[in-house]
């Protein structure tokens, strides 16, 4: 039975029952950009809304080579087998449609977790642009929460804007770092450090254990230098090994502590309300951009405008006005109509 043969109400019921097949179908629906599917997705999410909001939402990022997939596999299995959680993993990778990404490799490296019935591992959609991928990821997270997954791990593959997008949909942002020879802080942007709620130095095992502890001390000092406000919370810096399991309990305890602190002072509610407000305007921008991109009137003039801008017979400013005017003719009342 395909998604189209199920009513939205029936699909919502199956998702609430935790049916893996129907959860996958629901996520496929919310990932779709087709107008009729978007309408159905909105109805589905409205029906599922009362069952969402109770999960630990954790964003996970890290420099290349930090072992994100291996960490998520080990941590996810531990959360299932030792803590009784149902774990979902989502990836935000706006580059995957251009480069092929590393999603298949990630799934392979998460093989132990992916094979657990209490887990659900989902790669990012090939939407190609960050806004579309972030929207699909956020809505998929709500579907998974409604299906009973009480831990949702959102992995960000890129470095930069995708971290900001993920921080806008999670409660705790966990940054993974690996000890390296030379400058341990090389390549870590201050903006990424400021997003982090918990930092973990991975691969702290064998000959690398001492280097990991050195890197942790240096990062702890760096976190103190970011702000001179001693009353402001600083992200703890821990070490762990995905292979031996050492330190994983401490990393998860730090995540739980951060969430507990947010709940205790009302910060969790405030953070999620702020995320909802930001998401409201993100959705408005995305819908407007999608409407602009798919407008027949815009497509009718876009190629000509681009060609004239390319041969410098038309300025970018003049070209933008022509495109906006074409869009305005399709949507009466907009100020660019002329």
Automatic annotation (TrEMBL):
Coiled coil: none annotated. One of its GO terms (cellular component) is cytoplasm. One of its GO terms (molecular function) is GTP binding. Its EC number is 3.6.5.-. Pfam families: MeaB. Keywords: Hydrolase. InterPro entries: GTPase_ArgK (IPR005129), P-loop_NTPase (IPR027417). Belongs to the SIMIBI class G3E GTPase family. ArgK/MeaB subfamily. This is Methylmalonyl Co-A mutase-associated GTPase MeaB. It comes from Tessaracoccus rhinocerotis. The lineage of its organism: Bacteria, Bacillati, Actinomycetota, Actinomycetes, Propionibacteriales.
